Amino acid sequence: MESTLKYQFLELLIRLFCGIVFVFQGYDKLFVVKVKGVVDSFQNNASRKSVPVFLQYGMAYYTSVMEFFGGILLILGLFKSAVLILLGFDVIFVALAFSVLEPVWDMRHVFPRLMMISLLLVMPDDWCRFSLDYFLNK
Predict the structure, then answer these.
(1) Helix, strand or coil for residue 105?
(2) Tens-binned pLDDT, residue by residue, of the chain (138 aa)
(3) Which of 30, 100, 125, 138 has its CA 20 to 30 A from that of 77?
(4) Rounded to an integer, what distance in angstroms lies between the CA atom of residue 66 and that of residue 23?
């Protein structure tokens, strides 16, 4: 296998994996638990820390919608750079929320997402051959 093709497959593999993780996380928050359930799960702690309710709902909606639709767009390889930046903000918001609620928290779910987003952002665009962006920009 030619080395360029290996890099292109690597980009596809990481992008698909990252997209799948975000889609299922967002799907759960939007359609199973629902955004109200997400807010309810941390509302007691957030209220004790004086986090306004509008901010709790705003962040819950943003993260839920961004994870679901951002994951779908990553899988398709559509608007990759913009989606990765928005998912980067998503991960920052989640880290900020967890840090406010509990200063020492388990990063095992957030850190791998941050690393995948970071890796995809620094990969050269010519590695992203198996994507809708590539076919639309040919």
Answers:
(1) coil
(2) 578 999 999 999 999 999 999 999 999 999 999 999 988 888 877 778 888 888 889 999 999 999 999 999 999 999 999 999 999 999 999 998 888 888 778 888 899 999 999 999 999 988 999 999 999 987
(3) 30
(4) 9
Between the alpha carbon of residue 111 and those of residues 1, 88, 92, 116, the distances in Å are 31, 11, 10, 9
The two three-digit tokens of residue 122, written as one number: 């620094």
The neighbour count for residue 102, using CB atoms within 10 Å, is: 12
* Structural domains in the chain (count): 1
pTM of the model: 0.91
CB 132 within 8 A of CB 92: no
Tell me which residue has tokens 């955004």: 35
Q: Could you list the residue range(s) of the whole structural domain that residue 12 is in?
A: 3-136
Distance (Å, rounded) from C-alpha 65 to C-alpha 59?
10
Q: Which residues contact 121 (CB under 8 A, 6 or more apart)?
A: 81, 84, 85, 88
Report the C-alpha gap between 138 and 26 in whole angstroms: 31
